[in-house]
Amino acid sequence: MEQSGEPDEAISAPLTARMRIYRCVMIGTGVIAAVLFAAMALLVCADVFLRNIGAISIPWSVEVTEYMLMVAAFLAAPWLVYTNDHIRVDVLLRGLPDMARRIAGVLGDVICLLVCLALTYQSIVSTVDSAQQGGLVFKVLVFPDWWLGLPMLLSFVLLTVEFVRRLALVALRSRVA
Questions:
Q1: Considering the entire predicted model, what is its pTM?
Q2: Which residues contact 18 (CB under 8 A, 6 or more apart)?
Q3: What is the pLDDT along the chain (177 residues), one digit of tens a residue?
Q4: Contact (CB, 8 A) for 128 and 119
């Protein structure tokens, strides 16, 4: 089932301002993820280049690259779902009639919503627990352990909102049609 990222014109009229803000947030997550991926590539190349010419190594590069990879992956996920560019196995769906394909799409969105709700809840519990314990990450960089839970929490909150939005669009489209 192809689903566009934006609602039909008749549906979107009263939601325009909120949808624009939401769209900017989603595009922002994609842009930040892309910038982080580019920064990772530059940082790794710079570290390898500096080591190969006999100059100093960048001691924090591996650690920072690991954190950037995690943050970029979590920030890219909501944007990819929003733009419908996520990985989707639709071999079976292609053979289904149009109505069955739509039902399968809604069922898939409901399952994804339930999974994202569970992961959002668990991310909140984990992040709050980590903050209450006051643990620190001790590597080259030292920072509170709960900071590592924030990208995951943000990602699952945005994914939950996105699947709610997708299901709401299906409901609005069925009312308009």
A1: 0.83
A2: none
A3: 444 455 445 445 556 888 889 999 999 999 999 999 999 999 999 999 998 888 888 889 999 999 999 999 999 999 999 998 877 777 778 888 888 888 988 999 999 999 999 999 999 999 999 999 998 988 888 899 999 999 999 999 999 999 999 999 988 888 776
A4: no
